[in-house]
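Task 17 of the worksheet. Students: predict the tertiary structure of the chain below and write it out as structure tokens. Keep your answer in the requested format; marks are given for formatting as well as content.
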Amino acid sequence: MEILLEEFYKTDLNLEKFHFRKLFLDEKSYQINGITHSGKSKLVKNYLLGLKKSSYLYINCSDIRIEIDALNEQLSSFCNKNRIDVLVLDNFVESIKFPNVSQLIITSQEKHDIDSLIPLQLYPLDYEEFLAYEHKYDSSALNHFFQLGGFAHMHKVSADERVLNIQKMLKTALDDVTFDILRLCAKFTSQKLSAFTIYERLKQSRKISKDKLYRSFETLVSMNYIHQLEKLGSPKATKKVYLCDISLKSALTIEKNFSKLFENMVYLELLKSGRKCYYEDAIDFYLPQSDEIILCKPFVDERKLFKRLESIESFLFSYSVRKVTIISMNKETTVSHPLSQVEVVPFDIWALGD
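Model answer:
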């Protein structure tokens, strides 16, 4: 194992052009969590390349040559002998014991209960981060975002290989059951969906226990492959489900519903900005901290919009909603309303404005 550690220590890290993310690392110790291909390794490597080569040790724990027992026996003495200040355990395995180093960074899909490490959640690219990969910032950028989603490596994948690339990526990261659950969630993007409904559907095509399915569903939620949105004031009500990235919709199902996909995209921007929100009947997102409602209407029909506003007027009044924001693809206008300020805003302006 010492020979392998020497190899890790002497190997130069390679990183192609790095586009900065909204998360950054400093001298503290971190646990970085994120789904596969969310950018965890690149974030860590970019940080390490700013340090003195001899001061850090980078270990990718998914290397099959690593024997955990032997690693635990020798890692601490190796770090002491080589005066390692920064240790990175990429794709961390829970059975690995931590040596005493000045800074420890681990990355993982799963969250680990380690009090000494500051947790950081890394999501796929949001729209602003995505623009760093674009050659020009015009109307084509948003259409490109719909095609590629938030996985940075997709910029290098040809159009005819994108779907299979995402499928292969997910099959490698997930077991068969969780993958099948994710496929079903893709069909119900931006809709109410319970674990029980998933069980009722999947048991028709495969043998599975309810307990196994519930555990797998919770795993997808905890690792942030799917997100759930609670109904306002009804924590026990069926939650709406959203995918971790809009590219999964077309990769996992042939069903097309642009409005639901658009809503998923808006939700992810809210999630990544840290704004707490809920859903309500006829209301896509209610943000209590800002007394705001967000409605997703990619293609605005003014007649239908007025009817939609009429249907939620009691809510606007009851909750003293000050602002209603309608997110569209490209329409921008102000709508007169007696109870709230109503604005129609294109997605790209809204996403970059916050």
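Marker's comment: The first helix runs from residue 2 to 10. The domain at 2-121 is CATH 3.40.50 (Rossmann fold).
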